[in-house]
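**Fold tokens**
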Amino acid sequence: MTQEQVQEFEVQTLRLPAIAIRGLVMFPKMVLHFDVVRQKSIVALNRAMQGNQKIFLVTQKDSKIENPKKEDLYTVGVVAKVKQLLKAQGDVVRVVVEGLYRARMCELISDDPFYEVMCEELPMLPVEEDKKMTVDAYIRVVKDLFEEYCYYAPKMPKDLVVNIIGSEDPIFISEYLTQNLGFSLKDKQIILEESNIRKRLETLSSLLRHENEILSIERSIAERVKDQVDRNQKEYYLREQLKAIHAELGEEEDSDTEIEKYRQKLKEINPNEETQQKLNEEINKLSKMAFNSQEAMVSRNYLDTVFSLPWNQLTEDHLDVNAAKEQLDADHYGLQKVKERILEIMAVRKLQPDIKGQIICLVGPPGVGKTSIAKSIAAAMGRKYVRMSLGGVRDEADIRGHRKTYLGAMPGRIVSAVKQAGSMNPLMLLDEIDKLGSDFKGDPSSALLEVLDSEQNFAFRDHYLEIPLDLSNILFFATANDPSTIPAPLYDRMEIINLSSYTREEKFQIAKRHLVPKQVKRHGLNGRTCRFYDEAIYSLIDHYVREAGVRTLEREIASVCRKSAKMIVAGEKKSCHISEKMLETMLGPEKYKDDELQKENLVGVVNGLAWTSVGGEILQAEVAVVDGNGKLELTGSLGDVMKESAKAAITCVRGLCTQYGINPDFYKTKDIHIHFPEGAVPKDGPSAGVTMTTALVSALSGIPVRYDVAMTGEITLRGRVLPIGGLKEKTMAAYRNGMKTVIIPQANEPDLYEVDPVVKENVTFVTAKEIDTVLKTALLPMPKMCPQNPMSEDKNESMQIVESVVSEPVCVNVSKV
């Protein structure tokens, strides 16, 4: 631009609010509708409406930037006039603007609370006299290229074509055409910024030529695709003619052979009338279809799936109860409830072969052998075994299948499992049935209601098969960790067998009989090169694992075997005899220490018993009594039920004041603090009631508690001892910690049947119906006192011991229980 040309135009500098627009470029004389969402832009619009309605519109370089800075904006934009503002849904404002003239942003004055800029008008350079013919030539070139563009894009708006062809204004053509064609944002901005009309038309012609080349290639591709489709249609027509010719000549086709094979398979399976009719219709339909058509493929896949099922194929049950018992005992230690139930099934089936409807659910913590026992049961009964994992299944179609009209349809998991088993009477394990989910696709647990109902599953209908399938001969086993998550209707259809966590002795026997030989063999060792002593196995169980099952124990045994193999291969040892001392060298320091219980009779300290998911534990209760005003403090992460048991225990103790020389006003004059150690571990349940009552009586009366006595039971306000759960695990914990006497509720006496024999031999059990029995057993012989009360407020009064009264507890001869 020459100095004379610059002086010809009077540059106008304005201070205007600005909007950074995304995804489009504004041109002069252009009317634009767009939505404004950003708060800065809305404030800028409001400021413009308060003034002369002018606003500076500039395109941002990257549309993804939410709050662009000056360097994120182009410098050339358009000064526009706001024509209309409309409030849309939410905070959106719909605006109509008309471009006035180009302008250059000189300075970004402010970007908060809205963009405000100093901008100057940017007029187009005048066309020099000797360049006018060149501009006219470019106009013709642009129009010719635009006509070619319209040929490739025939849906071009009529108004656009008329306005371009009928105009001779180079500025209008360049801006109007650029505005309405699908050029990139960057290319549109280049044309907007160009002040030389000749160069602008040159750039526009290059862009049009490039677009025309792309459209030409797209058109040729579309024509080739159309030719291919026409060719396929021609092939189909010729194949139909060929089929008619073969029919006239009486020649046999592959399709006819295939139809005959399907009819032969239908005769072999000999289905019921409904199934026969359905499959005949499907075969007849297939015979009338084109061999390579999509519908024929769907029908063929359906028939292949149906005929691949093991129709009428049943395995013969092995009903020798004694042989089955030996095999189950050899495969698994313990799990007596499950084994007994299976032997009962076999015995009944031997007497009544037609009995159906055995659906059993094994409930227990992880790692106790629920899945593996099902496989052993299948082997003992001589049935095929198939496992179906239900964890995370959320779609009903996973159980019932998809209707075959859908693309890629397939049968559900039940039908697939029967096909996999190759028998109509396998043992089918529904693993993790408690982890079924549900969403908008349906509830798979509801779909299982028909499967697990012996009154309905003789005619189970899969959505894909659409014919009845007899599932009544299948022996269903399910496994679950948490039965509370199983829907009630589904839970009601199953016989629940609860498997508790393994005791210490059970873990030892399982490790010695099964895990150690299995891992020794797996790691290339034998009984001579690697041997585990009993104390080493006990040490592994006590100090290196804490679990309900034996999975972690097996991993630790495998780790010892690997280290033994390494030492033998390295030449360090010829054989490894694993002792308790060697474990620390191989596995590091003990991860879990034995409970350090004090071996002396203390006041206010009582051994309680608790059940956890990994076995039983000793839970000591400590009570401290200090002068105060009757406050009760409960610590040790206690739950609501346990706190209520503590309050019930205090009320119960108030009724025992006279009997044990306790000040009747202790609940007014003394502060009582009940604490259960390991405060970080949450504790709850009512079974610590008798423990807290005994500790309170001991602390208030000053009578020590025997350190070798443990107890469990719920307490009432009147001193009755109510039954509890988890007795097997609790008694094992008492035995493991050296308790000589265990006090249990009298109502739990039948549960002693399930207690481990080694515990019965070494622990004396006392059954208690009232709290008096508990106190007589746990407290040391109570001294008889003078009238002076040991809990008197007068500290000068002293307790005088006259004589000791020894009370004998009521014991149970465990060997006869």
Observations:
- The radius of gyration is 44 Å.
- Residues 1-9, 785-817 have pLDDT under 50 and may be disordered.
